[in-house]
Design goal:
single chain; 5-stranded mixed β-sheet; 26 helices; binds phenylalanine; binds zinc ion; Peptidase_M1_pepN_C_sf; Peptidase_M1_dom; aminopeptidase
């Protein structure tokens, strides 16, 4: 039964469940290896369903007893669930099952992490807790009773009776099982308080293991900011008396939005200045907001089925980006989001794992928590907002909340509220949800007699299972600059709906310079023949911060491609332009730090491949090194000045202002280190009193090959702190020399602190190897081998994390025959493993093609 070939599930096969649930009552008798779960579920026939087969999901459960309306029954049980004869009138199902949390290394269902009980049910983990219709369109209020010796016993909703050895919880809001949560442990809380705008008091808590109390304050502040922001910007109030957040060390993902009881990977919630970097703080603020925002976009309105995952995730990512833009710098947030989108989503969209934002089929839903569903899903919301305007968007959202509160909705429902609120026809927009692939947007222009015309042509390359890609509506934000650098046309949104389309602008005194796709108004690849002089001009004059940054990025990329293709020297125009920008004190330091960034090795490999050249990972790394060295020399005077100018002397704050200054100063430290061999970095390391400064210096030392002393000192200082030691593992691998990376990763897997059971630690070691692109793709093939070895070891313990990490191989078709053969051999070796999980089988098969 178990190894029958995995079944593909199709969106078109959706049918509603045959029953509805009026109430769920669960009792947990906790025991590490034999927890009893007693369920009492009131079912009644669903008048909207035809199929009345009574099937309850259930996996790895020991059924102790079952009854219907008090009469014992003997259901038909398989590895996947049970079926049973039931009356055609309302009835009460009762069952008792036994589960083994301690043996649960997949971290799905009820499991143990460092002595505490916790759950993870999205997407399909509740079926490992008890027999249930484990699908998001079955909603019910839950009553939960937990019996256990632990000091803290938590579940969803509002607290009920609590006493010695037990606690009861009542969640009045009907929810699907994937939002269920339970936590039990000897935890301590960091308390807080919020009063909603209608005056309802809410008790807030961040729960952690003893010892982590001093890492909670920032999460609490972020939560309060999020609650306020959602009231002010979206009019959404919190709806329970209590909101709990729990930090868990062993967790597959970032965090989970369980109703009233968010569970977080401890890396995504715990922070203080000594142990966490500015980037950690920013990420934590965003994830706290993301999970909190799910209370409305995800929980109050959930998804009808898992194909609609982007309904909650795309929208919630969009909302958390808006929040970060409001809390910090909007320009910096937009640029960082686009960098991440291109690195992860474009990469996915241009390879064997490409899939629509709303997929049409899957084998294992866990494999679809992807950059496409999340980040591209968020881009689609941004485009909708651009197309209908701020007011239209606000009206549509109000209608969405009003109409669908309490529903399990679809993308059709979502687009319908936009159509009704704004009167627009969004039929063509739907293609963004159904068609995979990144559109290419070719841009040419001409000018005659005061009329300037932009010509656009769109095309989307085929993706697995989809060859035909009709045109989509693309909002193209455009501005025009006059020859002296003044803006002659402010940003206008052109709506492209056809394959080829032209837009004219009249009454111009001279040929303007176009600034196309301002703010990255659509997730497309712009193809435009232009020269470096024009880029330097835009870099200097564009009023749109995204395109200003983009002009600098294009200069850097094209210079690097010329080095790689034609053996050119580093481009002087780029070196001058980046210096001019760094010198410009009117620009936000964080923006300047982003402008100092270079395309990644992976970006360059993709660009070469798209241009018909086989990328050589070693050559790419060397070109980047050459350019970085040339920059360091060109900025020999500027770098120490910037470094001194942007030292933060006030007490540490993880806010945008201080983080920007530190980022720029540490960028300067990188330049300095290339010439001084690490002296300045060592000084900074020795003096550092926060993790941002310490880690930046440590990275510089490792890159300079001078990291031995710091590596030892860092470990001695932080060996007691798991999250900091994750950084220690990861930095050594990420910064290892090309020929050493695989060996360093392999050596670290032998360190006593390495563990396969902790996903953070596993990723810090093996995920870091994939991040060291040149090391991973080392011609010997040892990078591939080490990663495959460990994925094979992890799969039986934790299929979900294994499968996600397989995407390290997704770009393999780009490379030379020798590397392709080596990767193919590793992929085949993984696929040949007996009993390979469904998760990993699906991923590797799709990658292998
Ligand atoms: N729903 C979570 C989020 O994006 C992510 C998640 C998915 C966590 C599946 C765990 C398991 O907020
Ligand atoms: Zn989410």
């Amino acid at each position: 039964m178990k190894d029958a070939s995995p079944q593909t599930i199709y969106l078109k096969d959706y049918t509603p469940f045959g029953f509805r649930i009026d109430e769920v009552a669960l009792t947990f008798r906790l025991d590490p290896s034999a927890t009893r779960v007693i369920s009492r579920i009131a079912f009644r026939p669903n008048p909207e369903a035809q199929d009345r087969r009574f099937f309850l999901h259930g996996e790895k459960l020991k059924l102790i007893s079952a009854s219907i309306d008090g009469q014992p029954v003997a259901p038909d049980v398989t590895d996947e669930g049970l079926t049973c004869e039931v009356p055609d009138t309302p009835f009460v199902w009762e069952a008792e099952v036994e589960i083994d949390p301690q043996a649960n290394t997949a971290l799905e269902g009820l499991y143990m992490s460092n002595g505490m009980y916790c759950t993870q049910c999205e997407a399909e983990g509740f079926r490992k807790i008890t027999y249930y219709p484990d699908r998001p369109d079955v909603l019910a209020p839950f009553d939960v009773r937990i019996e256990g010796e632990e000091k803290v016993l938590l579940s969803n909703g509002n607290p009920g009776a609590q006493g010695d050895g037990f606690a009861e919880w009542h969640d009045p809001w009907p929810k699907p099982a994937y939002l269920f949560a339970l936590v039990a442990g000897d935890l301590v809380n960091h308390p807080g308080h919020f009063t909603t705008r209608s005056g309802k008091p809410v008790e807030l808590n961040v729960w952690v293991r003893p010892g982590d109390e001093n890492k909670c304050a920032f999460a609490m502040e972020s939560l309060i900011k999020s609650m306020k922001w959602d009231e002010e910007v979206y009019g959404r109030e919190y709806d329970l008396d209590i909101f709990n957040i729990v930090a868990v060390d062993d967790f597959n993902m970032g965090a989970m939005e369980n109703k009233g009881l968010n569970i977080f990977n401890s890396a995504a919630v715990l922070a203080n200045p000594a142990t966490s970097t500015d980037m950690n703080f920013e990420r934590i603020e965003a994830i706290i907001a993301h999970e909190y925002f799910h209370n409305w976009t995800g929980n109050r309105i959930t998804c009808r089925d898992w194909f609609q995952l982007c309904l909650k995730e795309g929208l919630t990512v969009f909302r958390d980006s808006e929040f970060t833009a409001d809390m910090r710098s909007a320009a910096v947030k937009r640029i960082s989001d686009v960098i991440a989108l291109r690195a992860r989503q474009f990469r996915e969209d241009n390879g064997p794992l490409a899939h629509p934002v709303r997929p049409e089929s899957f084998v294992e839903i866990n494999n679809f928590y992807t950059a496409t569903v999340y980040e591209k899903g968020a881009e689609l919301i941004g485009m909708l907002k651009t197309l209908v305007g701020d007011e239209g968007y606000a009206k549509a959202l109000d209608l969405y909340f009003e109409r669908h509160d309490g529903d399990a909705a679809t993308i059709e429902d979502w687009l319908a509220v936009f159509e009704e609120a704004t009167g627009r026809d969004l039929t063509q927009f739907m293609r963004w949800y159904t068609d995979a692939g990144t559109p290419r947007l070719k841009v040419t222009d001409d000018y005659a007699d005061g009329t300037y015309t932009l010509h656009f042509e769109q095309s989307t390359p085929p993706t697995p299972g989809q060859t035909d890609k009709p045109p989509r509506v693309i909002p193209i934000a455009v501005g025009l600059l006059g020859p002296n650098g003044d803006e002659v046309l402010e940003t206008q949104v052109l709506e492209m709906t056809e394959t080829k389309q032209s837009f004219s602008f009249e009454g111009l005194g001279a040929k303007p310079v176009p600034s196309v796709l301002r703010g990255f108004s659509a997730p497309v690849i712009v193809e435009r023949e232009t020269d470096n002089a024009e880029r330097a001009f835009l870099l200097a004059h564009d009023t749109d911060p995204f395109n200003k940054w983009e002009a600098g990025r294009d200069l850097a990329r094209d210079g690097l491609l010329a080095m790689l293709r034609d053996g050119a020297q580093p481009d002087d125009l780029y070196l001058d332009a980046v210096q001019a920008m760094l010198r410009d004190d009117s620009l936000d330091p964080a923006f300047r730090w982003l402008a100092l960034g270079l395309p990644s090795q992976d970006d360059l490999a993709q660009a070469l491949y798209d241009g018909g050249t086989t990328p050589d990972p070693q050559a790419i790394w060397e070109a980047l090194e050459t350019l970085k060295h040339a920059r360091a020399e060109a900025m020999q005077d500027l770098a120490p000045k910037l470094y001194a100018q942007y030292q933060v002397t006030e007490p540490y704050q993880p806010n945008a202002e201080q983080s920007g200054a530190r980022a720029l100063a540490n960028g300067a430290l990188g330049l300095i280190t290339r010439l001084d061999g690490g002296a300045q970095a060592q000084a900074q390391y020795d003096a550092a009193d926060n993790m941002t400064q310490q880690l930046a210096a440590f990275s510089c030392l490792l890159q300079a090959g001078k990291g031995d002393a710091a590596t030892q000192a860092f470990y001695d200082q932080w060996r007691h702190d798991r999250l900091v030691i994750d950084k220690w593992f990861s930095l050594q691998v990420v910064n290892a020399a090309p020929e050493d990376a695989a060996d360093v990763a392999e050596r670290l897997t032998g360190h006593p602190d390495f563990s396969m059971k902790n996903p953070n630690r596993f990723r810090a070691t093996l995920g870091a190897l994939a991040m060291n692109a040149v090391g991973f793709h080392h011609a010997s093939g040892k990078g591939y081998r080490v990663l495959a070895d460990w994925l094979i070891k992890l799969d039986p313990l934790n299929p979900q994390t294994t499968a996600r990490m397989c995407s390290a191989f997704e770009t393999w078709r780009r490379y030379d025959a020798d590397r392709q053969a080596k990767i193919a051999a590793e992929l085949d070796r993984i696929l040949a493993v007996e009993g390979l999980s469904r998760d990993t089988t699906e991923m590797v098969s799709r990658i292998r093609g």
